[in-house]
Amino acid sequence: MKIIESNESFKWRKFSSTNEVIEIVKEFDQILSDQSFKGLKIINKRLNLKNLSKLKVSKKEISESSKFLTDKEKFALYEAIKNITFVSKSQLKTINNTIEPINGLSIWERYVPINSVGLYVPGGTAPLVSSFLMQVIPAITAGCKEIVICTPPQQNGKIHPAILWLAEQLEVDNVFKIGGAQAILSLANGYLGIPKVDKIFGPGNTYVAEAKKYVSNKVAIDLYAGPSEVMVVTNEDKNISLAAVDALSQLEHGIDSCAFVLSKSKTILKKVAEEIKKLSKELSRSDQIEPAIENISLIKCNSDDDIINMINSCAPEHLVLLDEDFPKYIDSINNAGSVFCGKKSPVAFGDYASGTNHVLPTGGWAKTNSGLSVNDYVKKVSFQKSDDSAFDYLSDKVITLSEIENLDAHGLSVKMRQNKKSSISRSYFLRRQTKETSIYASVDLDGQGLFDIDTGISFLDHMLEQFCKNSNLNIFLRATGDLDVDLHHTIEDTAIILGEVISKSLSSRDNINRYASKTVIMDESIAKVDIDLCSRTNLKLNIPKLNDFVGDFPTEMLNHFIDTFVKNLKFTCHIDIEGSNSHHLIEVLFKCLGKAFKDSIQINMKEVTSTKGIL
Length: 615
Description:
Blueprint: E1 2-5, H1 19-47, H2 59-63, H3 71-91, E2 105-113, E3 116-120, H4 129-142, E4 146-151, H5 161-169, E5 175-177, H6 180-189, E6 199-201, H7 206-215, E7 220-221, E8 229-233, H8 240-251, E9 258-263, H9 266-280, H10 286-292, E10 296-300, H11 304-314, E11 318-321, H12 327-330, E12 338-341, H13 347-352, E13 378-386, H14 388-404, H15 408-415, E14 427-433, E15 437-444, E16 451-454, H16 458-471, E17 474-481, H17 488-506, E18 515-522, E19 525-532, E20 538-542, E21 549-550, E22 553-554, H18 558-569, E23 572-578, H19 582-600
Parallel strand pairs: 1-10, 3-4, 3-6, 4-5, 6-7, 8-9, 8-11, 9-10, 11-12, 16-17, 20-23
Antiparallel strand pairs: 2-13, 14-15, 15-17, 18-19, 19-23, 21-22
């Protein structure tokens, strides 16, 4: 540990050769592939590890974990769960707006959780319950279906009860007692009865890190997590002790961990060095920390700009800005895994319970990588839908581009879809995404009354089916909404998208009948509907008082549904209903509305039914 001038030539990190480690990982892979559990015994013997009769943690072990924890410990863990969950949910990208780069070409993305994930939780000498939380909670938030945990057991062959208690609270039961490279190899290949996963997460020692790199040609990995590191910046005497303890805190993770302390004062750096030596002797893991003290670099900087340059050059995993003038640095920091501002924001907060993730890029990878987040557990799937106008606009251009590349089949795939003499299609597809609902809808005005409708509200589905049958519209609609909260959002948004998609299908509304008047009877009920597809919104709806619910449909939403539908389709509609049975009253309304639509949308090539020449 010595003081270095910022203008001196030095290396931020000492990268030891990993060739030997890589060869060992390859050897372990071959042993496990060829000999499975017998191979594991060979590896355990070499590493002086205990052989276990079963790798998977039993339900009994998980359920009994609670009695080994105090209420104080459980309360602290609950606080961590709450905060990490809050941050994870705020990160999750679920709202994807549909864009139209050209009129009629809809493009959107859907975020899909990775199906199966393997999470490595370091253990052995220290039960890293925080690493369990930092990986499991984002996986749950993202919606991953299969979560597999691998963590090395303690010397007694058991997993620390805090990890098992958390597994019970978060309903994760695929926990295996295995660590090191052999755990990573098993997650990647399905060795030893451990499920093969699609992506592997988690920090670990050199063997774990190299094993992740080794298997990355067959499964995805989160990031290369090397030795832990921290950079501390202070220019104030009053923060000397904090600078020293912050540097030491990351050395607890291993003898290859490193720390950097930056200051414009050489005197402060000397005092920090003295404090580090003093504090290191007082810590319970001093035998591990003291050999790592030589990995601490004290760097004398000449100015604030010099400090910024040092930070961005190093790209530290953790960056602590101890002094209260930290705001002057913030906008210039581009390369850091996670930044802790002010003396009341210790790295330990991020390590345990503030909510940010502590799985961060090390070894300078913060220049290009971010820390772990819920979005590492999802993938994007892109979608696009082109209507006739967009197809006609793009097709010739795409054919030209395919000719430049001499890819004939590409061009032919467009040419075979071209039909200059085809009639105009009166169909459209729309997608609506909000925080409460996700809805897809397509409509063909010149259909046969076909339907495939699922809103999650059975009676509403039934009514929309009646509308299809009587209007001859073909409608496909899928709605996923927060029905566990309330039916309101799904009902309202279904009306919105139906109105919008039919309006888009009508296009300019030229050459249609426009007007329709229909009467339909159903047992004791009768409905009269008059509509004008004039692009002016007006609704008059008279219907007797209804029961509170018909099936699973809250009838208070009927008026709102019809009103929302009218406003988004933009037409005038007068509805009069008489009768006594609530089911019949609503059903006859939808049937009559459908029949009115059937007439009003019929093609009328003689003229635009407006003296203005446009609807």
